[in-house]
From TrEMBL:
Higher taxonomy: Bacteria, Bacillati, Bacillota, Clostridia, Lachnospirales
Pfam families the UniProt entry points to: Iso_dh (PF00180)
GO biological process terms on file: L-leucine biosynthetic process
Residues that coordinate or bind substrate: 100, 110, 139, 227
Residues given in the record as Mg(2+) binding sites: 227, 251, 255
Entry superkingdom: Bacteria
Subcellular location per the Swiss-Prot or TrEMBL entry: Cytoplasm
InterPro entries: IsoCit/isopropylmalate_DH_CS (IPR019818), IsoPropMal-DH-like_dom (IPR024084), Isopropylmalate_DH (IPR004429)
NCBIfam families named in the record: leuB (TIGR00169)
Gene behind this protein: leuB
HAMAP family documented for this protein: LeuB_type1
Designated name of the protein: 3-isopropylmalate dehydrogenase
């Protein structure tokens, strides 16, 4: 089969990690007889430099007309990049938000899995990790505070900034359904995370999630406040199977969960709508501090490509092969700097991509 993939390298380490994921996909193509055809488009800071906006209509259309999108990351140094002090709609991140919104990608799946080989890279004590860590964060991606109205103005001589957090019941229902569906394929436990003691949007969240739960009697539903969840993740990570949560809470909790897997460089993600189309990207950002140095861990992006094979192309065997190849590379003792431990061989971004591709 021929698959059309929009490749968006983006900024910082983006081009390096997307190159390695493509290398692995191409090897999958050779071994299993598929061909992946890539159309490369700009998004983020690089698009601002070339076109004056973080995402052009043409780039969005290219993505829309393809079978799936493979993305690196966008953005510069927070606080001191040339793209920072500009209007919100002209920042690199606005390109990504517009892409997610424009393609209706409301469901963000972030699996957090600790490979046994990386146990020593996990900062938690062995007795806390216990039998391992294997969970999924189902994060709502096109609503909430990241998409609410916002403004900054002076009130009585004092600067004031406002961000509005809104959810409607339909937005909550469709992500809740996705959360329960994925739980049905796993250990059938949903922990819905909110701040219902304070926020109205969280109260509605809780009510709608309860309603959806009635259609999934086999799934055990628990509610947890987000601050408690942040604590529980490092105190008793084994209790989590599926975390179902809104946009900003999911953003923050998934970075926390990523460290339990050893490094943010290990955490893949898929952003889906109701169709087979999806956008696949690592959960981390553009890491400007290590860009261009062959230091970035490409595994999160490679595992995101595996999710593309599984969710958008129904190529389960091929996705398994990629995940197995990653596992084998770790078994064979190769590590990028972020997951390095004693007795292992340190490799760069390019070599890590080669090692995974060789094992397909
Ligand atoms: P970041 O995730 O880019 O980096 C955080 C830390 O993790 C840095 O020390 C970085 O070197 C390290 N790191 C990240 N990915 C790594 C990898 N694959 N291998 C090894 N180390 C890795 O987050 P930060 O620094 O807060 O943001 C940098 C830029 O990225 C900002 O402009 C931010 O807005 C943007 N960003 C973009 C995202 C996206 O495109 N989806 C998501 C998150 C942030
Ligand atoms: Mg984030």
């Amino acid at each position: 089969m021929n698959y059309n993939v929009t490749a968006i390298p983006g900024d910082g380490i983006g081009p390096e990690i997307v190159r390695e994921a493509r290398k692995v996909l191409d090897q999958v193509g050779r071994v299993y007889g598929h061909s992946f055809h890539y159309t490369e488009v700009l998004m983020g800071g690089c698009s601002i430099d070339a076109h004056g906006v973080p995402l052009t209509d043409e780039a969005l259309e290219t993505a829309r007309n393809s079978d799936a999108v493979l993305l690196g990351a966008v953005g510069g140094n927070v606080g001191n990049s040339k793209w920072y002090d500009v209007a919100p709609n002209l920042r690199p991140e606005a390109g990504l938000l517009a892409m997610r919104k424009g393609l209706g990608l409301f469901a963000n799946i972030r699996p957090a899995y600790l490979y046994a080989e990386l146990a020593s890279a996990c900062p938690l004590k062995d007795e806390i990790i216990g039998d391992g860590f294997d969970m999924v964060i189902m994060r709502e991606l096109t609503g909430g505070i990241y998409f609410g109205d916002r403004w900054t103005k002076e009130v009585d001589g004092v600067m004031q900034a406002t961000d509005i957090l809104t959810y409607n019941e339909n937005e909550i229902r469709r992500i809740a359904i996705k959360g329960f569906e994925i739980a049905m394929k796993r250990r059938k436990k949903v922990i819905s995370v909110d701040k219902a003691n304070v926020l109205d949007s969280s109260r509605l969240w809780r009510k709608v999630v309860e309603e959806v739960a009635k259609d999934y009697p086999e799934v055990e539903l628990t509610h947890m406040l987000v601050d408690n969840c942040a604590m529980q993740l490092v105190m008793n990570p084994g209790q989590f199977d599926v975390i179902l949560t809104e946009n900003m809470f999911g953003d923050i909790l998934s970075d926390e969960a990523s460290m339990i897997t050893g490094s943010i460089g290990m955490l893949s993600s898929a952003s889906l709508n109701e169709s087979k189309f999806g956008l696949y990207e690592p959960s981390h950002g553009s890491a400007p501090d290590i860009a261009g140095l062959d230091l970035a861990n490409p595994i999160a992006t490679i595992l995101s490509a595996a999710m593309m094979l599984r969710y958008s192309f129904d190529l389960d065997k091929e996705a398994d092969a990629v995940e197995q190849a990653v596992r084998q590379v770790l078994k064979d003792g190769y590590r990028t700097g972020d997951i390095m431990s004693d007795g292992c061989e340190k490799v760069g971004t390019t070599r890590m991509g080669d090692l995974v591709a060789e094992r397909i």
